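Collaborator request, handled under Task 6.
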Amino acid sequence: MLTNLFDPPSLAIRKICIAHNGGLKEEYVNPFHVNLTQEQLVNLSSGVTLPDEMASEILSARSVGEAECEKFRSERLKSNKVKFHEQIEEKNPFVQQLKQKDNS
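Structure tokens returned to the collaborator:
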């Protein structure tokens, strides 16, 4: 709900709270709710829990990216083991599955 720019701040906050309590509460997941499980990743807009395989893929993305960055630097910048412009190997298992389906 949009508020009028000329409303006093307290009235604007009240209007937002009324809109929140009126319908948004049932439609969206509150990421700060105490009963929300902390062991699983939950889509905030739909409330759907991600499967464990996808969650572990997302949670490990930073460490995998850092390892791949270091591999790139050591193989292509620090040495000539691989040519700089060679294609980078695809590591994402979901993309690999899609490629296999396309080839079959």
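The cover message to the collaborator said: "DSSP finds four helices and no strands in the chain. The chain has a mean pLDDT of 75. Please let us know whether this matches your experimental observations."
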